[in-house]
Amino acid sequence: PTMQEHDLNKYEVLRDLAIAGAKGESLRFLAEQALRQTCGLVGLEAASLHVWNDKHEISFEIAHAQTEDARKRLTALEIDLFSVLRERRQLVSAYMTFGGELPYQSFTLPLRHGSKIFGAVIGLAPGNVRLISEEMFLEALSAAMSLNAVVDGLSRDISVAREVIDKERLAAIIETAVTVNHEVNNPLTAILGNVQLLLLKRDDLDPELQKKLKTIEISAMKIKDVTQKLLRLTSARSVNTLREPACSIS
């Protein structure tokens, strides 16, 4: 491809990353696609994405390689060199050239959010490729990957937050149900007991009064049934933001 076509293809990689990220595609899907396209455009033999947690333990990684040997060389570079330099020398980014029978070049660029570095994009190319000439594209790529990784991470955090909120809501509803059951059942038992005692003397009661007492008994039994169901409540969820929480009762 011409230089103009080459630059356009790089722009399309970044555009695709942004569009897929905005659609909520998973980080794994985005990384697979971006690493594969980047390897073809820049002439990399292998590239990988690594995300780590606060203890610097790898929580996510994915790689694309032209050959298994290239994949192994890139893995060895990350384990034996880049990760060690990050831990001991606070390495942030680097472009390196290696000699030997099979000379090659490599790079590591950070995934960052604000001042926090939480991962890296690394790559490996044969010795005749000048990776430093692709510096602007590779840095833009790592920035785009950072944004998508952050969005993916925030989605998980929101999911966790919703789970916590649901548990807190359920606990509050159960507490309310227990209180209601206690406060309602005591007077309800007295009402129901007295009504049933009166109904035992129905022969002495006016038919209209009997009918009204029977209605009170049925209503009281319904209330008692509802309070008992509240105590068997097992989950709570909001149907949507415009409606009251719906309760699931076993």
**Mass-distribution shape:** rod-shaped
Radius of gyration from the alpha-carbon trace, in angstroms: 33 Å
Subunit arrangement of the protein: single chain
Largest sheet: 5 strands, antiparallel
Tell me the β content.
15-25%
| Estimated structural class | alpha+beta
Written description of the protein model:
It is a single chain. This protein is of the alpha+beta class. Helix content is 60%, strand content 20%. It has 5 helices and 7 strands. Strands 2-1-5-4-3 form a 5-stranded antiparallel beta sheet, sandwiched between helices. β4 (104-113) and β5 form a beta hairpin. α1 runs parallel beside α4, α2 packs antiparallel against α4 (135-200) and α4 (135-200) runs antiparallel to α5. It is rod-shaped. 21% of the residues are buried.
Secondary structure elements and their pairing?
Elements: H1 3-22, H2 27-42, E1 46-52, E2 58-65, H3 68-89, E3 94-98, E4 104-113, E5 116-126, H4 135-200, H5 207-231, E6 233-237, E7 246-249
Antiparallel strand pairs: 1-2, 1-5, 3-4, 4-5, 6-7
List keywords for this structure.
alpha+beta; 7 strands; 250 residues; 60% helix; two-stranded antiparallel ribbon; rod-shaped; 5-stranded antiparallel sheet; disordered C terminus
